[in-house]
Amino acid sequence: MAEKGYLLAREDQAEAKQAELAAIAQQKKQQESAAAAKPFTAQPTRKPKGAAGT
């Protein structure tokens, strides 16, 4: 079951586990949207000082 993403929880803890997973999913969604909102800007690569051939 675990490989399909299922969790096993006791019946008396099911609601709390569901709320915990929902909070984790919401946090992940916010992180992904924040990462998507930031444009990637590539920095030019520089050779270290004293590199051979400079």
Write up what this structure looks like:
By secondary structure, the chain is mostly helical. The protein has one helix and no strands.
Structure summary:
The protein has 54 residues and is mainly alpha-helical.
Q: Name the overall outline.
A: elongated
Specify the structural class: mainly alpha
Distance between the terminal alpha carbons, to the nearest Å? Answer: 59 Å
Mean pLDDT: 84
Major β-sheet profile = none
Rounded Rg: 23 Å
| N to C succession of SSEs | H
| Uncertain residue segments | none
Fraction of residues in β-strands = under 5%
DSSP strand count = 0
Oligomer: single chain
SSE blueprint and pairings:
Blueprint: H1 14-37
Keywords:
elongated; single chain; mainly alpha
